[in-house]
Automatic annotation (TrEMBL):
Signal peptide: none annotated. It holds the Pfam family CCDC22_CC. The keyword Transcription does not apply. Belongs to the CCDC22 family. It comes from Nelumbo nucifera. The keyword Transferase does not apply. One of its GO terms (molecular function) is cullin family protein binding. Residues 369-400, 493-537 form a coiled coil. Residues 251-509 form the CCDC22 coiled-coil domain. InterPro entries: CCDC22, CCDC22_CC, CCDC22_N. GO terms for biological process: positive regulation of ubiquitin-dependent protein catabolic process. This is Coiled-coil domain-containing protein 22 isoform X1. The gene is LOC104593349. Keywords: Coiled coil.
Amino acid sequence: MDEAQEILLNSLGSLGVSLPPGVSSVQDLNPGTLVSICAQSLHLIDDSLSFPTSLPDIMAERFKICAEIASAIKGVGYRGDISFNQFLYPSEEDSYKLVRFLVERLSEASEGGKNANKKIDGVIRSENNKLEVVLKDTVEKDDNPRLHLNQLIVTTGLNDLKLETEVVETTCPVDKEFSVNGPIDACLAPRDKAEKGAVGISGEGSLESSKEARCRRLEDVKELIEESGNLKGASYGVRESPANSYTVFEQNLAFLQEHSSKIQNQIKDLHSEGKMLLEELSSRVLESQCLQYEYNVLEAVVGMATDHEKPIDLYVEDLNKRIEAGRNDLVELGSQWDALNKPLEDKKRSLEESLHAQTPEVLDKLKKLKEVELQTQEIISEIQKREEEHSRLSAELKDQPKVASRKSYIQRISEITKNSRKQDADIERILQETRELQIESNSIQDRLHRTYAVVDETIFRDAKKDSVSRQAYRLLTSLHQSFEQISEKILATDRARREIAEHEAKLAAMASRSLDINRLQTDLDAIRRENEFLEQRLHNREM
């Protein structure tokens, strides 16, 4: 029984009910912990139900809160008898039934949440399918999708590389030593220059390694381009022999696709490394700017503190003037922004209207794409919340004490099921025997009634003529009445024994509840004192 109680309490904890420390079985539940568990469980079952998780000091408030919780539990489907005394003076049996009911209801509520999540997943899946259909329509407009996609991938990678080098060129000049090796070195030189400047902050060793890595990548790119050029020349030569042109073209196409994928991977690596270096450089620049600003502020403060010729009020007045000037500048900039933003908004609106008039399908697809992006953001935030909750529950699971293994639980459940089946078989056998005895008793009673009716009629007919028969008839009626009285007494005795057994079971249950008479007397005295205090206040108000 202790293991079953521990399983119930662990189930409550896993369903989101916080248990106080030191509670490992139902016997450890006192009125305060029982009220806290019930209040939390009712709030999880129904969000509209909200009760305090602790008992107040005033006895009247305690009775009121316990009565409200009892009625709420009755409202969510509890079939047993429940009132305030189950909370203020709990017994082990009543508390076990109540906790088991709460676990069942919380499990049903969690199943309902899972069904809602399945519906959300279905909506997300349908929106993803719609997006895939839109993208497929745009791709299928080309005659040769495979070559088109390969060309698009390579072109996109080169454009990204070009865009990245242009961004780097705006921040730092190109070193002359990289402009000798051809157009590829010229494109990659700004990236190496930026990386050189960023890595130089951390040390010369990392600079040398990064330069060597760049040189290796440049050599690989050169080799790939030379091989592709040679392959291109070879393909032109093969065109003169039409017999092998198709096979050679397929081989050349596979080779070009392989090399284009390699070039794309190297471009992506260079692009990502350049991004990392730019981010690190920008962060270092911002950090240096913040430090410089703090240094200037501290220098100004020190100058103000050491300047004895001017009072502090002049500096405060100067700062107030600067703040007011800054506010005026912000207001002016806001007005200028409004003046510039309004024609831009009108132009944007007119362009959207013209685009909608020319190609309404593109605008509809854009709206759908925006809706999908908004739903994606909501889903990502929901996933983040679920991940946080998962990490929290994982930490709580690690902190919880280790319980018995799943195999032991399965073994216990199988034993309980086996015993239950055995008890069901015994009950069925007893009911069958009782039914057979009842049928036999009814048949015997019917036979006795028929026999008595025949004998009574025979003796009564002879009793009119003979005095002996009359005496026999009196004895027969007296015997019949005596046996009826005996039968009634046996039934009454059996009924009394059953009532005695029921009363004994009730007495045993009352004895197991371990009611503390001193505690009851203390609560009664507190209620009397509160009543007297309330009566005194009422009397003072009337006077």
